[in-house]
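Work package 3, deliverable 3.1, input record:
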Amino acid sequence: MTLADLQEKQKAIVKSIGDLGELKTRLMELGVLCGEPVQLVRRAPWGDPIEIRVEDTFIALRRADAAKIEVEPISQLRVRKGRGAKR
Amino acid sequence: MKKIRVALAGQPNVGKSSIINSVTGARLHVGNFSGVTVEKKEVFIERGDYEIEIIDLPGIYSLNAYTPEEHVAKKYLYEEDYDLIVNVVDANTLARNLIFTMQLMDMQKKMILVVNMIDEVEKQGGSIDKGKLEELLGIPVILTSAKEHRGVDEIIDQIVATHESDKPKNKLYYDQRIEEQIDKIVKVLHKSPHFKDPEYARFIAIRLLDRDEDIYKIIHDLPIFIELHELLGKIYRELELEYDEESTSDILSDERYALSKALVMEAVKKPEVKVSLTDRLDRLLIHPVFGLPIFLFFMWLLFQLTFEVGSIPMDMIDAAFTEISNVVKATLPDGAVQSVLADGVIPAVGSIIMFLPNILILFLGINLLEQTGYMARTAFLLDGFMKKFGLQGKAFIPLVSGFGCTVPAYMAARTLKNPTDRIITMLVLGFMSCSARLPVYVLLIGAFFPTAHAGNILFIIYISGAILGLIVAKILRTVLFKGEPEPFVMEMPPYRFPSMKALGMELWIKTKLFIKKAGTFIAGASMIIWFLSSYPHSGTIEESYTRKIEAVQSEEAKAALENEMAAKALENSYLGRIGKTIEPFFSPIGFDWRMSVAVVAGLAAKEVVVSTLATLYAVGDADERSNTLIQRLRDNVTFKAAIAMIVIIMIYSPCIAAMSTFWAEVPQWAWRGFYLVYPNVLAWLMAFGIYRLLDMMGY
Ligand SMILES: Nc1nc2c(ncn2[C@@H]2O[C@H](COP(=O)(O)OP(=O)(O)O)[C@@H](O)[C@H]2O)c(=O)[nH]1
Ligand SMILES: [Mg+2]
């Protein structure tokens, strides 16, 4: 599953960052690295962009780019309620 | 006196500018970085035998510069001559800040680490062990809070101490496998006379591993390039295989991140986590449904306040200038000097100073949006919307700044990485009405709309400008620039209570600049307008009217004739002739020659429109009833022509200062030419359409 598929408030671990060009470097500098926990904080109106959290840094990025970041969800809290969050 | 030059570097929003502003006994100097229009703030401080110069570089996340603004900071760090680096970091997000710190340490210059915002960490029960950080990093560390003025002056003492000490320069070691490769690269580099200095060679080697394009360009033209290129290819492949990463720069990023996490683990006591104020505010302010209406409400409120509160001191300022003008009339003997002052300069300057309160409120509002961190939220809220118009959310920030002043807004467009995005944003920025256009709007609204609706009309004018800008952006994107806008990635800084001192400073600087502009540029322009409208004196007109006036009996008829004479003289003046020449061009949109002249004069500065109207409509005013400019406009200008004028002001070219900034920012001649022509054509067409429409509707 990818970062874009997370539900609001759900946490996950970054597994891999796909082909994002220079954006990848920028994200890594902001703390989005493999093995780090991330959380989807909220979505903007119309669902795009999204806000994510790594450590104490909050980052806005677009769904299309977030969809290239593979994650492994860790918070089971919402999964029970959510539809199709687990796969 | 000996000089120490200090480069102040750090990520965006860490409080660099706040620190610089709160150093005791500093002289501030604001200029530009050479060749570019990024604002360069420097302070000069005297301490003992030294004069210390500190340069506030633009915020930069890392040496892998991303936006044009970051490139300015990087270029400075690489190429300029300075004695030491002061690296400011945010105590709240120390781990990721330290990644940049480590890149700076690779440069092996003398360096000081300033951990700012310590107040926020402590307030939440956390703490940072300064000694431990110093020991682990091997450079001096100072904990500061610019907000509470803690530790700021210590920075200056430490700068002197570090400058004087001959302690070996700092050095950071990477993983053994990486170090081995660095050594190999350094060996090849040493073969070139450019890289005899081992410290410099090591830095170049690390930057090559970090895939730094700028460094690659340096080595590209050297004789050792072929050997180096081969070696690098081999090293890249080896390391990438060994670490299972896509690029050696990712390896270095991981490496630095691991190091900095270890550092933070040792030296920082984490504050307990709780729901932050930012999170609670954001739940409301960027709510998926309520976020946008709230934003629109803030904007509406801003323009209401601008109009309503701004108009309170207006009458007083107006009265004061009328008084000054009367005093001048009473004390100076009749003649050209009295006339140029009392009828030309003073009313013109007064007609502009009157709007200072409006302008200050608008600026304060935009500054508040920026300083509190709300501006980044608006970019987040509106990215989806902006995308439909071929722009991205971050472009919204220069656009909103454009409501204040177009010049810094053009500069703010530098935060956009993609050149196409930047050009489109800059081409439509002029449609965001700047505060200098405010006087014209306030004047025309005051003359032609009921007071109760004034704030709303103002809001509508600004919003229409913004909507027009978006539509034009969309057209430009589809017609002239193919391709996708750049990816949107942006840090959302926490909400912060703005520093009152900083806000006060900004307003004070703004006031000073405005008064200076009114007193020099605008006074000068109005003097020219006065001259052009007073000369040449035509003997024949005066003669014929003097005879007529003597011939009639009633006072009324005398006054009417006097008026007529003045009007004839004005039409005969240089300005009248110019106006008559350009009038045919403007008459389809209902302008008389006076409005035409005012609009053209507005190309120098938008405030000049008001002062020119004041001068031109003041003539022939023997009639007591029409003693204010507003009344005179009502008597002479039709409603539909006034609307056409608002439309022209909204759309046509901005002032000279803004145009020259665009010129400096955009090197392509094609765009420069396009920029000079299209807003004016568009303005005329729009004004014509609206004028005709109103005409058909019977206004
Ligand atoms: N609490 C706190 N806020 C600070 C401190 N220093 C700066 N700020 C605030 O942080 C924000 C960014 O500061 P600024 O100087 O513009 O950062 P720059 O981008 O690095 O120049 C502003 O709202 C400042 O008022 C500090 O030491 N403590
Ligand atoms: Mg700053």
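The pocket of magnesium ion (ligand 2) is lined by residues B 16-17 (CB under 6 Å).
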